[in-house]
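Q: Predict the bound structure with pyridoxal-5'-phosphate.
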Amino acid sequence: MGLKGVDDDMSGDVVDGHGDDEERAGRRDGAVRAAVEQGLLGPDAPIVGLLDVRGIRASAAALRRAFEAVAAPGTAILHAFAVKANPLVPVLRLLAEAGLGAEVASAGELALARAAGMPAELMVFDAPAKTEAELREALALGVAVNADNPQELTRIDALRHPGRTRSPLGIRVNPQIGAGTIGATSTATATSKFGVGLRDEGAREWVVQAFAERPWLTRLHAHVGSQGISLSLLARGVAETYALAEEINARAGRRQVDTLDIGGGLSVNFASEATEPTYAQYARLLAQAVPGLFDGRYGLVTEFGRSLLARHGTVVARVEYAKSSGGRRIAVTHAGVQVAPRTVYVPGAWPLRIAAYDAKGRPKEGAPVVQDVAGPACFSGDLLAEGRALPPLDQGDFAAALDTGAYYFGTHYSYNSLARPGVYGFVPDGDGGVAFAVVREPQTVAEVVAESGGAHADALTTLRATGSR
Ligand SMILES: *Cc1c(COP(=O)(O)O)cnc(C)c1O
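A: Predicted complex:
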Protein backbone atom coordinates (compact mmCIF):
# COMPACT_ATOMS: atom_id res chain seq x y z
CA MET A 1 0.00 0.00 0.00
CA GLY A 2 3.01 2.30 -0.02
CA LEU A 3 2.48 3.29 3.60
CA LYS A 4 6.03 2.51 4.63
CA GLY A 5 7.66 4.93 6.97
CA VAL A 6 4.66 6.78 8.34
CA ASP A 7 4.84 5.31 11.84
CA ASP A 8 6.40 8.48 13.17
CA ASP A 9 3.01 10.03 13.30
CA MET A 10 1.80 7.41 15.75
CA SER A 11 4.43 8.41 18.23
CA GLY A 12 4.47 12.01 17.13
CA ASP A 13 8.14 11.76 17.84
CA VAL A 14 9.94 14.42 15.88
CA VAL A 15 13.16 12.41 15.89
CA ASP A 16 11.47 9.41 14.26
CA GLY A 17 9.76 11.79 11.87
CA HIS A 18 13.01 12.81 10.25
CA GLY A 19 13.47 9.44 8.53
CA ASP A 20 10.15 9.93 6.83
CA ASP A 21 10.86 13.49 5.88
CA GLU A 22 14.21 12.46 4.41
CA GLU A 23 12.57 9.72 2.37
CA ARG A 24 10.12 12.22 0.99
CA ALA A 25 12.94 14.58 0.00
CA GLY A 26 14.70 11.68 -1.69
CA ARG A 27 11.59 10.74 -3.65
CA ARG A 28 11.25 14.38 -4.73
CA ASP A 29 14.81 14.56 -6.05
CA GLY A 30 14.26 11.29 -7.90
CA ALA A 31 11.07 12.61 -9.46
CA VAL A 32 12.66 15.84 -10.70
CA ARG A 33 15.48 13.88 -12.33
CA ALA A 34 13.06 11.41 -13.90
CA ALA A 35 10.78 14.18 -15.14
CA VAL A 36 13.71 15.67 -17.05
CA GLU A 37 14.85 12.27 -18.34
CA GLN A 38 11.36 11.34 -19.46
CA GLY A 39 10.80 14.69 -21.17
CA LEU A 40 7.96 15.93 -18.94
CA LEU A 41 10.19 18.87 -18.17
CA GLY A 42 12.46 20.62 -20.66
CA PRO A 43 12.73 23.50 -23.13
CA ASP A 44 9.23 22.93 -24.52
CA ALA A 45 7.66 22.06 -21.17
CA PRO A 46 9.36 24.57 -18.92
CA ILE A 47 7.10 24.15 -15.88
CA VAL A 48 5.36 21.18 -14.25
CA GLY A 49 3.68 20.36 -11.00
CA LEU A 50 4.65 17.05 -9.40
CA LEU A 51 2.63 15.15 -6.78
CA ASP A 52 4.10 12.48 -4.52
CA VAL A 53 1.42 9.78 -4.43
CA ARG A 54 3.11 7.76 -1.72
CA GLY A 55 3.45 10.84 0.44
CA ILE A 56 -0.23 11.76 0.02
CA ARG A 57 -1.27 8.25 1.05
CA ALA A 58 1.05 8.39 4.04
CA SER A 59 -0.40 11.71 5.24
CA ALA A 60 -3.96 10.46 4.85
CA ALA A 61 -3.09 7.34 6.86
CA ALA A 62 -1.31 9.38 9.53
CA LEU A 63 -4.37 11.60 9.92
CA ARG A 64 -6.73 8.67 10.34
CA ARG A 65 -4.48 6.91 12.83
CA ALA A 66 -3.90 10.06 14.88
CA PHE A 67 -7.60 10.48 15.59
CA GLU A 68 -8.32 6.77 15.97
CA ALA A 69 -5.60 6.64 18.61
CA VAL A 70 -7.40 9.12 20.88
CA ALA A 71 -11.09 8.46 20.12
CA ALA A 72 -13.30 5.91 21.87
CA PRO A 73 -13.61 2.76 19.75
CA GLY A 74 -16.46 3.02 17.29
CA THR A 75 -16.47 6.84 17.14
CA ALA A 76 -17.64 7.93 13.68
CA ILE A 77 -14.91 10.16 12.23
CA LEU A 78 -15.06 11.71 8.78
CA HIS A 79 -11.92 13.42 7.54
CA ALA A 80 -13.27 15.67 4.80
CA PHE A 81 -10.39 17.03 2.72
CA ALA A 82 -10.81 20.76 2.01
CA VAL A 83 -11.05 20.60 -1.78
CA LYS A 84 -9.91 24.17 -2.29
CA ALA A 85 -6.43 23.14 -1.14
CA ASN A 86 -5.98 20.90 -4.19
CA PRO A 87 -8.99 20.76 -6.49
CA LEU A 88 -7.79 18.02 -8.83
CA VAL A 89 -10.12 15.10 -9.49
CA PRO A 90 -7.47 12.34 -9.38
CA VAL A 91 -6.22 13.69 -6.05
CA LEU A 92 -9.75 13.55 -4.65
CA ARG A 93 -10.11 9.98 -5.92
CA LEU A 94 -6.80 9.04 -4.27
CA LEU A 95 -7.97 10.52 -0.97
CA ALA A 96 -11.33 8.77 -1.25
CA GLU A 97 -9.49 5.49 -1.73
CA ALA A 98 -7.48 6.34 1.40
CA GLY A 99 -10.74 6.64 3.34
CA LEU A 100 -11.20 10.42 3.31
CA GLY A 101 -14.17 12.56 2.31
CA ALA A 102 -14.41 16.07 0.88
CA GLU A 103 -15.26 19.51 2.21
CA VAL A 104 -16.61 21.56 -0.69
CA ALA A 105 -17.34 25.26 -0.83
CA SER A 106 -18.79 25.92 -4.28
CA ALA A 107 -20.80 24.23 -7.01
CA GLY A 108 -17.51 23.63 -8.81
CA GLU A 109 -15.89 21.88 -5.87
CA LEU A 110 -19.01 19.80 -5.32
CA ALA A 111 -18.90 18.74 -8.97
CA LEU A 112 -15.20 17.86 -8.70
CA ALA A 113 -15.79 15.67 -5.65
CA ARG A 114 -18.64 13.94 -7.45
CA ALA A 115 -16.48 13.44 -10.54
CA ALA A 116 -13.94 11.76 -8.26
CA GLY A 117 -16.66 9.34 -7.17
CA MET A 118 -16.92 10.74 -3.67
CA PRO A 119 -20.23 9.57 -2.15
CA ALA A 120 -22.56 12.26 -0.77
CA GLU A 121 -22.29 10.87 2.78
CA LEU A 122 -18.59 11.70 2.75
CA MET A 123 -19.09 15.33 1.75
CA VAL A 124 -19.64 18.53 3.67
CA PHE A 125 -20.78 21.74 1.99
CA ASP A 126 -19.49 24.92 3.66
CA ALA A 127 -19.40 28.23 1.87
CA PRO A 128 -20.16 31.74 2.98
CA ALA A 129 -22.28 32.59 -0.09
CA LYS A 130 -24.27 29.48 -0.99
CA THR A 131 -26.99 30.24 -3.52
CA GLU A 132 -30.45 28.80 -3.26
CA ALA A 133 -29.72 26.53 -6.22
CA GLU A 134 -26.54 25.24 -4.58
CA LEU A 135 -28.37 24.56 -1.33
CA ARG A 136 -31.14 22.76 -3.21
CA GLU A 137 -28.59 20.55 -4.98
CA ALA A 138 -26.71 19.70 -1.79
CA LEU A 139 -29.93 18.80 -0.01
CA ALA A 140 -31.13 16.70 -2.93
CA LEU A 141 -27.87 14.77 -2.90
CA GLY A 142 -27.84 14.30 0.87
CA VAL A 143 -24.60 16.27 1.34
CA ALA A 144 -24.11 17.70 4.84
CA VAL A 145 -24.60 21.46 4.99
CA ASN A 146 -23.43 23.92 7.62
CA ALA A 147 -25.47 27.11 7.57
CA ASP A 148 -23.24 30.15 7.77
CA ASN A 149 -25.72 32.69 9.09
CA PRO A 150 -29.36 33.26 10.08
CA GLN A 151 -30.48 34.15 6.54
CA GLU A 152 -29.05 30.92 5.21
CA LEU A 153 -30.76 28.94 7.93
CA THR A 154 -34.06 30.54 6.89
CA ARG A 155 -33.40 29.37 3.33
CA ILE A 156 -32.73 25.86 4.56
CA ASP A 157 -35.97 25.98 6.56
CA ALA A 158 -37.79 26.55 3.29
CA LEU A 159 -35.82 24.10 1.17
CA ARG A 160 -35.63 21.01 3.34
CA HIS A 161 -38.29 18.35 3.01
CA PRO A 162 -39.18 16.86 6.38
CA GLY A 163 -38.80 13.13 6.12
CA ARG A 164 -37.02 13.27 2.77
CA THR A 165 -33.92 15.40 3.33
CA ARG A 166 -31.08 13.13 4.40
CA SER A 167 -28.42 15.84 4.65
CA PRO A 168 -27.02 16.25 8.13
CA LEU A 169 -27.54 19.93 8.92
CA GLY A 170 -25.66 22.23 11.21
CA ILE A 171 -24.62 25.79 11.94
CA ARG A 172 -21.16 27.27 11.55
CA VAL A 173 -20.07 29.30 14.51
CA ASN A 174 -17.16 31.64 15.03
CA PRO A 175 -15.80 31.42 18.56
CA GLN A 176 -14.13 34.83 18.04
CA ILE A 177 -11.00 33.80 19.90
CA GLY A 178 -8.61 35.87 17.82
CA ALA A 179 -6.13 35.68 14.98
CA GLY A 180 -3.01 33.71 14.22
CA THR A 181 0.08 35.13 12.56
CA ILE A 182 -1.55 35.66 9.13
CA GLY A 183 -4.61 37.88 9.01
CA ALA A 184 -5.96 36.58 5.71
CA THR A 185 -6.20 33.00 6.96
CA SER A 186 -7.53 33.81 10.44
CA THR A 187 -11.25 33.08 10.57
CA ALA A 188 -11.98 33.42 14.29
CA THR A 189 -11.43 37.14 14.63
CA ALA A 190 -14.22 39.31 16.01
CA THR A 191 -15.13 40.55 12.55
CA SER A 192 -14.44 37.46 10.41
CA LYS A 193 -16.90 36.98 7.56
CA PHE A 194 -17.56 33.33 8.50
CA GLY A 195 -20.24 31.83 10.70
CA VAL A 196 -22.22 33.20 13.62
CA GLY A 197 -19.95 35.21 15.93
CA LEU A 198 -20.65 33.67 19.33
CA ARG A 199 -19.51 36.66 21.36
CA ASP A 200 -21.71 39.16 19.57
CA GLU A 201 -24.60 40.33 21.67
CA GLY A 202 -27.42 37.82 21.65
CA ALA A 203 -25.69 35.53 19.12
CA ARG A 204 -25.02 32.57 21.38
CA GLU A 205 -28.59 32.67 22.60
CA TRP A 206 -29.77 32.84 19.00
CA VAL A 207 -27.84 29.66 18.15
CA VAL A 208 -29.18 27.79 21.18
CA GLN A 209 -32.70 28.91 20.31
CA ALA A 210 -32.26 27.97 16.64
CA PHE A 211 -31.45 24.41 17.71
CA ALA A 212 -34.33 24.34 20.20
CA GLU A 213 -36.74 25.28 17.41
CA ARG A 214 -35.26 22.87 14.88
CA PRO A 215 -34.88 19.33 16.17
CA TRP A 216 -33.34 18.38 12.83
CA LEU A 217 -30.23 20.52 13.39
CA THR A 218 -27.60 18.04 14.56
CA ARG A 219 -24.19 19.57 13.89
CA LEU A 220 -22.01 22.40 15.03
CA HIS A 221 -19.13 23.56 12.85
CA ALA A 222 -16.16 25.82 13.49
CA HIS A 223 -13.00 26.34 11.44
CA VAL A 224 -10.90 28.89 13.27
CA GLY A 225 -8.36 29.43 10.56
CA SER A 226 -5.52 28.07 8.51
CA GLN A 227 -1.77 28.60 8.19
CA GLY A 228 -0.42 30.60 11.12
CA ILE A 229 -2.93 29.43 13.75
CA SER A 230 -1.19 27.79 16.71
CA LEU A 231 -2.23 24.38 17.99
CA SER A 232 -3.43 25.92 21.23
CA LEU A 233 -5.64 28.44 19.42
CA LEU A 234 -7.09 25.64 17.28
CA ALA A 235 -7.80 23.66 20.43
CA ARG A 236 -9.47 26.65 22.10
CA GLY A 237 -11.78 27.00 19.13
CA VAL A 238 -12.73 23.34 19.39
CA ALA A 239 -13.25 23.66 23.15
CA GLU A 240 -15.65 26.58 22.68
CA THR A 241 -17.60 24.69 20.04
CA TYR A 242 -17.79 21.62 22.26
CA ALA A 243 -19.02 23.72 25.20
CA LEU A 244 -21.77 25.18 23.04
CA ALA A 245 -22.84 21.70 21.91
CA GLU A 246 -23.06 20.63 25.54
CA GLU A 247 -25.21 23.66 26.31
CA ILE A 248 -27.53 22.98 23.39
CA ASN A 249 -27.87 19.36 24.36
CA ALA A 250 -28.50 20.18 28.03
CA ARG A 251 -31.24 22.57 26.98
CA ALA A 252 -32.74 20.00 24.64
CA GLY A 253 -32.53 17.25 27.25
CA ARG A 254 -31.15 14.92 24.58
CA ARG A 255 -28.12 14.51 22.36
CA GLN A 256 -29.41 16.78 19.64
CA VAL A 257 -25.95 17.81 18.47
CA ASP A 258 -24.51 14.44 17.56
CA THR A 259 -21.54 15.55 15.43
CA LEU A 260 -18.91 18.23 15.85
CA ASP A 261 -17.15 19.52 12.75
CA ILE A 262 -13.85 20.92 14.00
CA GLY A 263 -12.58 22.28 10.68
CA GLY A 264 -9.00 22.05 9.44
CA GLY A 265 -6.21 24.53 9.80
CA LEU A 266 -3.15 22.59 10.91
CA SER A 267 -0.15 24.68 9.85
CA VAL A 268 2.65 23.46 7.62
CA ASN A 269 6.28 24.13 8.47
CA PHE A 270 7.37 25.80 5.23
CA ALA A 271 10.78 26.62 6.69
CA SER A 272 12.21 23.11 6.67
CA GLU A 273 11.59 19.51 5.71
CA ALA A 274 10.46 18.54 9.22
CA THR A 275 6.77 17.71 9.57
CA GLU A 276 5.65 19.68 12.60
CA PRO A 277 3.20 19.92 14.09
CA THR A 278 1.95 16.40 13.35
CA TYR A 279 -1.64 15.19 13.34
CA ALA A 280 -0.75 12.98 16.31
CA GLN A 281 0.39 16.00 18.32
CA TYR A 282 -2.79 17.89 17.49
CA ALA A 283 -5.07 14.95 18.29
CA ARG A 284 -3.34 14.40 21.62
CA LEU A 285 -3.61 18.06 22.49
CA LEU A 286 -7.33 17.99 21.68
CA ALA A 287 -7.77 14.92 23.85
CA GLN A 288 -6.18 16.79 26.75
CA ALA A 289 -7.88 20.12 26.19
CA VAL A 290 -11.36 18.77 25.36
CA PRO A 291 -11.59 15.25 26.82
CA GLY A 292 -15.33 14.92 26.17
CA LEU A 293 -14.72 15.33 22.45
CA PHE A 294 -13.42 11.80 22.08
CA ASP A 295 -15.49 9.89 24.63
CA GLY A 296 -17.78 8.47 21.97
CA ARG A 297 -20.79 10.77 22.49
CA TYR A 298 -20.00 12.82 19.41
CA GLY A 299 -19.23 11.90 15.85
CA LEU A 300 -16.43 14.00 14.42
CA VAL A 301 -15.73 15.72 11.12
CA THR A 302 -12.38 17.29 10.29
CA GLU A 303 -11.57 19.45 7.26
CA PHE A 304 -7.82 19.49 6.77
CA GLY A 305 -6.44 20.81 3.50
CA ARG A 306 -2.94 22.26 3.51
CA SER A 307 -1.48 19.83 6.03
CA LEU A 308 -2.55 16.86 3.90
CA LEU A 309 -1.21 18.03 0.55
CA ALA A 310 1.32 20.86 0.81
CA ARG A 311 4.35 18.67 1.43
CA HIS A 312 3.60 16.40 -1.48
CA GLY A 313 3.65 18.92 -4.28
CA THR A 314 6.60 20.50 -6.06
CA VAL A 315 6.50 22.97 -8.89
CA VAL A 316 9.60 22.77 -11.06
CA ALA A 317 10.49 25.45 -13.57
CA ARG A 318 13.25 25.85 -16.10
CA VAL A 319 15.65 28.76 -15.83
CA GLU A 320 15.07 30.44 -19.19
CA TYR A 321 17.68 33.12 -18.61
CA ALA A 322 20.25 33.84 -15.94
CA LYS A 323 21.14 37.51 -15.76
CA SER A 324 22.27 40.16 -13.39
CA SER A 325 20.97 43.62 -12.63
CA GLY A 326 22.39 46.20 -10.25
CA GLY A 327 24.80 43.57 -9.01
CA ARG A 328 21.96 41.14 -8.17
CA ARG A 329 21.93 37.72 -9.81
CA ILE A 330 18.50 36.84 -11.20
CA ALA A 331 17.26 33.49 -12.46
CA VAL A 332 14.30 34.15 -14.73
CA THR A 333 12.12 31.03 -14.52
CA HIS A 334 8.65 29.93 -15.59
CA ALA A 335 7.19 29.75 -12.09
CA GLY A 336 5.83 32.94 -10.60
CA VAL A 337 2.57 34.52 -9.65
CA GLN A 338 0.48 32.13 -11.77
CA VAL A 339 1.42 29.19 -9.53
CA ALA A 340 2.34 31.01 -6.31
CA PRO A 341 0.16 34.11 -5.94
CA ARG A 342 0.32 34.22 -2.16
CA THR A 343 4.09 34.02 -2.07
CA VAL A 344 4.50 36.63 -4.79
CA TYR A 345 2.01 39.14 -3.41
CA VAL A 346 2.66 38.60 0.31
CA PRO A 347 6.21 37.24 0.44
CA GLY A 348 6.71 37.93 4.12
CA ALA A 349 3.84 35.66 5.15
CA TRP A 350 4.31 32.91 2.57
CA PRO A 351 8.03 32.17 2.02
CA LEU A 352 8.77 29.00 0.05
CA ARG A 353 11.90 26.88 0.07
CA ILE A 354 13.57 26.76 -3.33
CA ALA A 355 15.70 23.83 -4.48
CA ALA A 356 18.20 24.18 -7.33
CA TYR A 357 18.65 21.42 -9.92
CA ASP A 358 20.99 21.28 -12.88
CA ALA A 359 19.92 20.83 -16.49
CA LYS A 360 19.74 17.05 -15.99
CA GLY A 361 17.54 17.42 -12.94
CA ARG A 362 20.28 16.59 -10.43
CA PRO A 363 20.52 18.59 -7.19
CA LYS A 364 22.82 21.48 -7.96
CA GLU A 365 26.08 21.70 -6.08
CA GLY A 366 28.16 24.80 -5.60
CA ALA A 367 28.71 27.50 -3.04
CA PRO A 368 25.47 29.43 -2.47
CA VAL A 369 25.21 32.88 -3.93
CA VAL A 370 22.54 35.43 -3.23
CA GLN A 371 20.08 35.61 -6.09
CA ASP A 372 16.47 36.31 -7.01
CA VAL A 373 14.32 33.55 -8.41
CA ALA A 374 11.93 35.39 -10.72
CA GLY A 375 8.77 34.30 -12.48
CA PRO A 376 7.59 34.94 -16.04
CA ALA A 377 4.94 37.57 -15.30
CA CYS A 378 5.31 41.18 -16.36
CA PHE A 379 5.61 43.00 -13.08
CA SER A 380 8.77 43.41 -11.10
CA GLY A 381 7.42 41.87 -7.91
CA ASP A 382 6.94 38.51 -9.64
CA LEU A 383 9.57 36.75 -7.52
CA LEU A 384 9.39 33.29 -5.99
CA ALA A 385 12.29 34.22 -3.75
CA GLU A 386 14.20 37.45 -3.30
CA GLY A 387 17.84 37.61 -2.27
CA ARG A 388 18.02 33.91 -1.51
CA ALA A 389 21.36 32.11 -1.07
CA LEU A 390 21.31 29.13 -3.44
CA PRO A 391 23.78 27.29 -5.65
CA PRO A 392 24.05 29.59 -8.67
CA LEU A 393 21.21 28.92 -11.11
CA ASP A 394 22.32 28.97 -14.75
CA GLN A 395 20.40 28.98 -17.99
CA GLY A 396 18.81 25.57 -18.54
CA ASP A 397 18.86 24.64 -14.84
CA PHE A 398 15.67 24.09 -12.87
CA ALA A 399 14.32 25.83 -9.78
CA ALA A 400 11.80 23.95 -7.67
CA ALA A 401 9.38 25.58 -5.23
CA LEU A 402 8.86 23.04 -2.47
CA ASP A 403 5.76 22.28 -0.39
CA THR A 404 3.47 23.61 -3.09
CA GLY A 405 0.94 20.76 -3.14
CA ALA A 406 -1.79 22.89 -1.55
CA TYR A 407 -3.04 26.30 -2.70
CA TYR A 408 -0.26 26.68 -5.28
CA PHE A 409 -0.04 25.08 -8.73
CA GLY A 410 -3.34 23.28 -8.20
CA THR A 411 -5.14 26.61 -7.89
CA HIS A 412 -3.88 28.49 -10.94
CA TYR A 413 -4.07 32.26 -11.35
CA SER A 414 -4.16 33.22 -15.00
CA TYR A 415 -2.17 36.48 -14.87
CA ASN A 416 -0.57 37.37 -18.23
CA SER A 417 -2.61 34.50 -19.72
CA LEU A 418 0.08 32.14 -18.51
CA ALA A 419 -1.06 28.61 -19.20
CA ARG A 420 -1.80 26.14 -16.42
CA PRO A 421 1.14 23.76 -16.13
CA GLY A 422 0.70 20.04 -16.46
CA VAL A 423 0.47 18.12 -13.21
CA TYR A 424 1.89 14.62 -12.84
CA GLY A 425 1.67 12.17 -9.98
CA PHE A 426 4.67 9.98 -9.31
CA VAL A 427 5.58 6.77 -7.50
CA PRO A 428 8.84 4.86 -7.25
CA ASP A 429 8.54 2.19 -9.96
CA GLY A 430 10.12 -0.52 -7.82
CA ASP A 431 13.10 -0.75 -10.18
CA GLY A 432 14.94 2.29 -8.93
CA GLY A 433 13.07 4.53 -11.37
CA VAL A 434 9.98 6.67 -11.21
CA ALA A 435 6.57 6.13 -12.82
CA PHE A 436 4.39 9.14 -13.70
CA ALA A 437 0.68 9.57 -14.38
CA VAL A 438 -1.03 12.61 -15.88
CA VAL A 439 -3.17 14.32 -13.25
CA ARG A 440 -3.91 17.43 -15.32
CA GLU A 441 -2.85 18.07 -18.91
CA PRO A 442 -0.88 21.24 -19.54
CA GLN A 443 -3.25 23.91 -20.79
CA THR A 444 -2.86 24.71 -24.48
CA VAL A 445 -2.73 28.20 -25.95
CA ALA A 446 -5.93 27.40 -27.87
CA GLU A 447 -7.62 26.69 -24.53
CA VAL A 448 -6.38 29.99 -23.17
CA VAL A 449 -7.97 31.77 -26.14
CA ALA A 450 -11.20 29.79 -25.80
CA GLU A 451 -11.67 30.65 -22.15
CA SER A 452 -10.85 34.29 -22.83
CA GLY A 453 -13.85 34.93 -25.05
CA GLY A 454 -12.28 33.56 -28.23
CA ALA A 455 -15.68 32.49 -29.53
CA HIS A 456 -17.03 36.01 -29.09
CA ALA A 457 -14.30 37.98 -30.87
CA ASP A 458 -16.73 40.38 -32.58
CA ALA A 459 -19.13 40.67 -29.67
CA LEU A 460 -18.18 44.25 -28.83
CA THR A 461 -17.51 45.66 -32.30
CA THR A 462 -20.93 44.53 -33.53
CA LEU A 463 -22.85 45.56 -30.47
CA ARG A 464 -25.33 48.31 -31.33
CA ALA A 465 -27.81 50.13 -29.19
CA THR A 466 -31.27 48.76 -29.97
CA GLY A 467 -33.25 51.74 -28.64
CA SER A 468 -35.08 54.13 -30.99
CA ARG A 469 -32.50 56.91 -30.86
C1 LIG B 1 -10.01 26.43 3.90
C2 LIG B 1 -10.87 25.69 4.84
C3 LIG B 1 -10.42 24.51 5.42
C4 LIG B 1 -9.02 23.96 5.21
O1 LIG B 1 -8.05 24.72 5.85
P1 LIG B 1 -6.53 24.20 5.84
O2 LIG B 1 -5.79 25.26 6.51
O3 LIG B 1 -6.14 24.03 4.41
O4 LIG B 1 -6.49 22.91 6.59
C5 LIG B 1 -11.30 23.81 6.22
N1 LIG B 1 -12.56 24.26 6.45
C6 LIG B 1 -13.02 25.40 5.92
C7 LIG B 1 -14.41 25.81 6.20
C8 LIG B 1 -12.20 26.15 5.10
O5 LIG B 1 -12.65 27.29 4.58
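A: Residues 279 and 415 are 35 Å apart (CA to CA).
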